[in-house]
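Consider this:
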Amino acid sequence: MPPIPSDVWGGGIAGAIKQAGGEIIEAEAVKQAPTPIGTAILTSGGSLPFKIIHAPTMKGPGDRTSTENVRLATRAALELADKSRFKRIAIPGMGTGVGRVQPEEAAKVIVWEIESFHAIHLEEVLLVDVNEKMAQAFKRGLIGQL
């Protein structure tokens, strides 16, 4: 499979990360491509003060994804964070932008994966998103209203 085209990095979470941390993040990820769904890779954060875990939810740029792929990506990100001895990780509403998974459905599987994950090193998972619907879905998921 050829490397992911760089135009994929123009929008969504990937675009925001690239804009904030620099093109080096994309270059490091592309060197490790392809990254199948259910796996994750680690790159520097460029000019950001942390590392970036990339866990894809879709096979190709602009593809519609599924809650199963969101679940697999969440699990892969948690596993890599723990293996990398991270104490804290931030997880956005994966699959809810370009992938078109509804925020409530993504929140269900993300929260379920976090709650069922048995970490050794990972102590804290932050649920983050700039989309208010996703942020509210995370809140409802954490208090069991989904």
User: Anything to note?
Assistant: DSSP finds five helices and four strands in the chain. The first helix runs from residue 12 to 21. The radius of gyration is 14 Å.
